[in-house]
Amino acid sequence: MSMAYLYGKKFVGLITPTITALREELYNTPYSNIDWGKVSNCCAEEDLHNPRSQVRNIVLVCLKKFVEPMLNWWPTNKLRGRALSKLMEQIHYNNETTEYITICPVDKALNMICCWVENPNSDAFKKHLPRVYDYLWIAEDGMKAKIYDGCQNWETPFIVQAMCSTNLINEFGPTIKKAHDFMKKSQVLRNLPDYERFYRHRSKGSWTLSTIDNGWPISDGTAETLKNKDGSICTYERRRTATWVELLNPSESFKNIVIDHPTSECTASVIDGMVLFKELYPQYRSEEVGNCIKNAVKYVEGKQLKDGSWYGSWGICFTYGTMFAVKGLGAAGRNYYNSSSIRKACKFLLSKQQSTGGWGESYLSNYTEEYVDSGTPHTVETAWAMLGLIYGGQAEIDPVPLYRAAQVLMSMQLETGEFPQQEHAGCANSAFYFNYPNYRNLFPIMALGEFRRRLVANKN
């Protein structure tokens, strides 16, 4: 929306020495010599993950050659003015309902520019400024920008689960209580005002990925709200249109960004949460909850690939997706003995174990949609594979592969007690890779803790 607004306004900022220097640094051709009409559809081969569709090309040509000239003249320019006004209304709504954080740093920067273009002295622009710092952090090698304003609501439950897996919860009682208090305070307690008119989804009762200010609910905190007709679960909102609209995807680098697509890991996480909820509150909307679990299980089982894996959309990649899928199916009562899906998943994970005993999957798996071994063990991916096997019952069948994996994790632990930072484990849109800061510690702890618990249980 913000790019459309800036283009429609034909906004050009003041050309300062800094802008001139950036142009010289970014382009290997003098800026004044670039034919932007000719190169507007150019894309480096390395970034071309989503080739343009013929439908999109036709639409763009029609817009450029026929619609754009018409909108520059009276009376059709009145239509452009109304459209720009509607765009700013949407942008202001997005700003206000996220406390001026918006959904990501790119969106925030562009929305802030739009507010400045509309009125440099506006309250909207001034409210944007202090929230820039939500995206900045100081690393060992200098200041960096995060891809999101945080992942507190996402990682905190995992950290608590990791602590619980160790059977050392008595030692961490105050810490776990604080985490519980944080999650209670972070729940969204009301729907956004007039949310349907602004194409948003109900959010009451949900959790965001980061903090309550973020305003965008995720499916791991919301179940029925985001359930599709086929039982699947999307990330932010229910799928509300046909998948063919992806033909109009304006990005050559990112796939599946026009609509919110369902994922196996989100659906499996919801199964896990709904089963636990049903155990605690068996009388509350029992039929609806039961149908949600049943349909979600059917969807997850239907998404299993021939080799026994599941594609992971938010992590790298088949190791991540398979771990979540097996956990969700296990929560719903599937196990190694009564489910061919579980048996195939365990077989897949075992087939990818490296000679060292660990697992290491390359980020290229998300792009090629085929498993690509990185050649070296990765702590997080080894932990994911261990957890997938543990949830699938491998500890009871043959614990030897798990012993080997546990030895790899313990050998990689540093003297400080933490685990090393390795390649990124997060992914989005099959081409965007990032790091979750606590994954490198919480998942190895969880995997080792769960393995020890199962071994003790088996011995008893």
From TrEMBL:
* Keywords of the record: Repeat
Which residues belong to any copy of the Squalene cyclase C-terminal domain?
Answer: 225-453
Q: Name one GO biological process term.
A: triterpenoid biosynthetic process
Listed PROSITE patterns: TERPENE_SYNTHASES
Q: Which InterPro entries match?
A: SQ_cyclase_C, Squalene_cyclase, Terpene_synthase_CS, Terpenoid_cyclase/PrenylTrfase
Give an example GO cellular component term for this record: lipid droplet
Task: Name one matching Pfam family.
Answer: SQHop_cyclase_C
Statement: the UniProt record of this protein carries the keyword Repeat: yes
* MF terms in GO: intramolecular transferase activity
Question: Could you tell me which SUPFAM superfamilies the record lists for this protein?
Answer: Terpenoid cyclases/Protein prenyltransferases
Family that this chain belongs to: Belongs to the terpene cyclase/mutase family.
Annotated protein name in UniProt: Squalene cyclase C-terminal domain-containing protein
Origin organism is Triticum aestivum (Wheat)
